[in-house]
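STRUCTURE REQUEST FORM
Protein name: HTH marR-type domain-containing protein
Source organism: Secundilactobacillus paracollinoides
Requested output: structure tokens
Priority: standard
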Amino acid sequence: MSKIDFADCLYFSSARFTRLITKISDQQFKRVGLSPTAAFILMSLNDGDDVSPSQLADDLSLDRSTITRFLDKLEQRTLITRTANGRSVIVTLTIDGKQLQPTLKQLWADLNRSYQRLLTVGGEAQLRGVLNTAFEDAREK
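Status: completed
Returned output:
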């Protein structure tokens, strides 16, 4: 019986690497009691534009149900508010959410430096570029 080399499988290789990257990201944002996804939602709201949950889901490539769960938690922590606007909902940062932005920006920069130390600056940029291109190509099909 021949042994299966799971490293020959894109799913296995990408999931294995994702676990490594996720661990680093989780540790980084845990400093402020947030998951990486919650932090990304807050950072994406920092522009001050009126944003719907659907737009957040599209911007972050997440399911709408996932966004709703995160928004529930962020609203409980008084970092965001959701306001009904006719048939839609608008999500905005609260004062607490706005005050957290400089810290999130610093954690984001620290996180990217962690990835660059792990992969080198050029390696991180190259891998990120390949992943973004592959995602866009796959999404178009």
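Reviewer notes: The chain has two domains: 33-98, 100-141. Residues 100-141 form one domain.
Form closed.
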